[in-house]
Amino acid sequence: MQESFLGQWDPDIPARLIQARARGHQVMVWIWFGTAKPDTSLLEGAQQQLDTLELPERGDP
């Protein structure tokens, strides 16, 4: 599995993992929030985008 990470890890910032499966791929995205009370609309929007992500058939270049 390929991993990509941008930025610095800060254990004091709450994070949530969202994931989606499409055409044999599994996409996982960590979202970090700058406050103790995360904005759930950001999570919902990101999940919707992942759920509608068009990926090539697994094995295709």
Helices and strands, with pairings:
Blueprint: E1 15-22, E2 25-32, H1 40-51
Antiparallel strand pairs: 1-2
Brief overview, please?
The chain has 1 helix and 2 strands; from the N terminus they run E-E-H.
Describe the structure.
This protein is of the alpha+beta class and 61 residues long. The protein has a domain at 15-50. It contains one helix and two strands. The protein has one helix at 40-51, and strands spanning 15-22, 25-32. It has a two-stranded antiparallel ribbon. The longest helix is centred in the last third of the chain and has 12 residues, at 40-51.
Quickly list its features:
single chain, 61 residues, alpha+beta, 2 strands
Average pLDDT over all residues: 64
DSSP, total strands = 2
Euclidean distance between termini CA atoms? 16 Å
| Gyration radius over CA | 14 Å
Q: What level of helicity do the residues show? A: 10-25%
Number of helices: 1
Order of helices and strands: EEH
